[in-house]
Amino acid sequence: MSRRVGIIGHPVGHSLSPAFQQAAFSHSGLDVVYERWETPLTSLPDRVASLRAPEVLGANVTVPHKEHVIPLLDEVGGLAARAGAVNTIVNREGRLFGFNTDGPGFIAALRNEAAFEPAGRSFLLLGAGGAARGIALALLEARATVDIWNRTPGRAVALARDLGAPARALADPPHLASYDCLVNCTTVGMEGGPDPRGLPCPLETAGPALLVVDIVYTPRETPLLRRAAARGLRTLGGLPMLIYQGALAFELWTGIPAPVDVMFRAAENELARREGAAP
Ligand code: NAP
């Protein structure tokens, strides 16, 4: 019998995970089917309970359920417990374990795709939502310093307080010259988001060595990345983080190394297919 994994969220129709996870299972010769599990909040307890079946390896969890799944699991440790968010569930003989691979996926993307080691570097995170929280925790664990600036200042203050020193919330719009890396963790610039053509912050004060990262991955070249490249700054898009969080999930489910190149190719093909199909 085929084993099963899926993505739990609402909506999940546009998720790229089925394309690149299925490619990884097929490439690795594993008889696993990756499914889309559209799950409104009222169905979440039943959906999570269904993961205990012996043929189910586990699941990815996406918006809006990363926090809601926690009380439904048997064990949640490490970063997931500190982030208060689970993006990967593993079924081990009927017991459900929760992990968060978003932050580690971000760090792997920085190291592997931008040759950027976070230890000892200063980061400015724009945004104070779920993605910013996971990334900030992973950066602090990697011994980076983290400042946070958010449209709603109170959320940045609350996040910095939860994270503890050396995380700091900025009260005023940031001056970029003192940072090594800027990371957009807002939805600004995201296709279908509240401000698809906007910039999450101006880049006029950036020094020449600033690395500009946008975790938004649709479109692949966001307005922020385009503006940064036009200023001659180094950039990293959001697709690598997506792939590495997925690669870490694949390894948790299967115990074998993820074929990262295959996953990148499948995701890029899927994005190109969608861009080609766009009106
Ligand atoms: P979230 O929890 O809803 O947080 C959204 C953030 O965006 C908040 O800080 C919000 O500020 C800010 N924001 C929204 N509209 C804004 C505007 N018009 N101007 C300025 N700030 C605005 O979302 P999330 O889960 O953290 O996700 C954030 C983005 O990251 C999404 O685009 C998501 O697709 C992307 N993401 C990518 C990956 C990846 O693997 N590459 C992983 C996770 C998330 P307020 O607090 O003021 O509302």
Walk me through the structure.
The protein is globular and about 60 Å long. Helix 1 crosses helix 8, helix 1 crosses helix 9 and helix 4 packs across helix 5. The model has no long low-confidence stretch (mean pLDDT 95). It has a six-stranded mixed sheet with strand order 2-1-3-5-6-4, sandwiched between helices. It has a six-stranded parallel sheet with strand order 9-8-7-10-11-12, sandwiched between helices. With 279 residues, it is α/β, with parallel strands linked by helices. It folds into two domains: 135 residues, Leucine Dehydrogenase, chain A, domain 1 (Rossmann fold, 3-Layer(aba) Sandwich); 135 residues, NAD(P)-binding Rossmann-like Domain (Rossmann fold, 3-Layer(aba) Sandwich), CATH 3.40.50. It contains nine helices and twelve strands. Bound molecules: NADP nicotinamide-adenine-dinucleotide phosphate. NADP nicotinamide-adenine-dinucleotide phosphate binds next to helix 5 and helix 8.
